Amino acid sequence: MDFDKKQGMAGVRPGMSGAENAGDRAFKALRGPWAGTPYHLDAPFWPTPEPLVERMLDLAEVGPGDHLIDLGCGDGRIVIAAARRGATALGVDIDAERIAEAEAAAHAAGVEQLVSFRCEDLFATRLEAASVVTLYLIPHIHGLLGARLKTELAPGSRVLSHAFAIRDWTPRAHETIDQRELFLWVVD
């Protein structure tokens, strides 16, 4: 189930109780007053080099039957690489310019039928449909996402990260390539 675009940008799910909305407000306060807006990036745009993208997808054995969600997708390179392997994929980024680049790149790669991109706050993105989630954010944001990933993802779902671990999670695989770290976790 997708959020209504207007509600998704606000980070408030339709039908939430007052207590849940208060929790969302407290969570948003942790992120700052501009959280979830185009003026508040949860991480700068640092593209993952193509060889690392491929290695990440190899670690998680991404292929047909998978649905990958890339939180903070930037130019869409991970989403496109997953589609080239036969997976469906969704890329989410708060920066409309990055989304436009990603859509153009998917079209050029001929994979637009397998991918979609949304300009929205990554904390408003529903994760239940994902079998794979990819991250290249910053440690603070990974920490904020950790509990949500465990709650919303089905057992056996894979979580991949470039550069930063998720605090208190034990990776299934951890590799260093050209002084860059890759992590794979599998949800219990």
List keywords for this structure.
single chain, 6 helices, alpha/beta, 188 residues, disordered N terminus, seven-stranded mixed β-sheet
Strand order of the largest sheet: 3-2-1-4-5-7-6
Please bin the fraction of helical residues.
25-40%
Shape: globular
Largest sheet: 7 strands, mixed
The average pLDDT is 85
Strand proportion: 15-25%
Count of DSSP H/I helices: 6
Pattern of helices and strands: HHHEHEHEEHEEE
Number of strands: 7
Distance between the termini: 23 Å
Class from helix and strand fractions: alpha/beta
Cα-based radius of gyration, to the nearest Å: 16 Å
Low-pLDDT runs of 5+ residues are: 1-19
Characterization of the model:
With 188 residues, the chain is an alpha/beta fold. It contains 6 helices and 7 strands. The protein is 35% helix and 20% strand. A 7-stranded mixed β-sheet has the order 3-2-1-4-5-7-6, with helices on one face. Strand 6 and strand 7 form a beta hairpin. Helix 3 crosses helix 4 and helix 4 packs parallel to helix 5. The N terminus is likely disordered.
